[in-house]
Specification:
The complex is a heterodimer of chains A (85) and B (147). In chain A, 14% of the residues lie in helices and 46% in strands. Chain A has 85 residues and is mainly beta. Chain A starts with a helix and ends with a strand. The chains are: A mainly beta (85), B alpha+beta (147).
């Protein structure tokens, strides 16, 4: 599942400019289908000043955290993935 | 007596086979997990490199590598005082990070944590246009190591 989380983090971060997050039309919660399997995911962005963008409560699952930028502000993107029952 | 010895040898062989197969099975199970963990670190290193490459301060139009280059060439003083703090925020939980920007024989290096044997490296040559050089491009190298 770490692979799925890495794939999602890559999709978020490699938009128009690498490492710069474009938040328009970007769902921060959803389902990612890989073959016949469905994985649920949540993404949260934490800015350097402590501001958080994303779901209030994060589900427990496999986490991947990567450095990123939101416009010019340093931020971290955390992607949590878990298996849908 | 001979029969007893044969039984002990058979049991010993079965035991050794079991231990070997269990070890191989555990290694096989751990292999994809290990490679996934490494992929995560590789992605973090790659994104840290690109984040530094595209990072510009709020009130300035210069990017981070350009600013460092201008400092190295003596065209500008200071700036990015909280760089170590931001780097620590970006790579929290990682063991070692090293950022280097170099041009000709001058280099600017920031290191956090103790060096580790296994680490990932993202590097590139940048063509930068520092202010005050009369519009001439300067080739600089930026390298990010994350362990």
């Amino acid at each position: 599942m770490t692979d799925i989380a890495c794939t999602l983090a890559t999709q978020f971060c490699f938009g128009r400019t690498p490492a710069v997050l474009t938040l328009e039309n970007q769902p921060l919660e959803g389902v990612y289908s890989f073959g016949r399997e469905n994985f649920r995911f949540q993404a949260k962005i934490t800015m350097f000043d402590g501001t958080e963008i994303g779901p209030g409560i994060m589900h427990k699952g496999v986490e991947v955290e990567v450095p990123a930028l939101v416009e010019e502000v340093p931020a971290k993107l955390k992607v949590v993935v878990w298996k849908e029952d | 007596m001979e029969r007893g010895l044969a039984d002990i040898l058979t049991l010993g062989f079965v035991f050794i086979t079991l231990v070997c197969s269990a070890t191989l099975l555990l290694l096989w199970v751990d292999f994809p997990l290990r490679s996934a963990r490494e992929r995560q670190k590789q992605l973090q290193c790659e994104l840290l490199y690109f984040a530094l490459l595209n990072w510009r301060s709020k009130n300035s139009n210069t990017t981070f590598p350009q600013h460092v280059l201008e400092n190295l060439l003596g065209l500008r003083e200071g700036g990015w005082e909280n760089f170590a703090e931001i780097l620590r925020f970006w790579i929290s939980g990682e063991k070692w990070v090293r950022v280097e920007v170099s041009v000709e024989n001058r280099s600017w290096v920031v290191t956090l944590g103790n060096r580790v044997d296994r680490f990932y490296r993202s590097q590139g040559m940048l063509s930068l246009l520092p202010a005050g050089t009369g519009g001439s491009m300067i080739r600089a190298r930026m390298e990010v190591n994350l362990g």
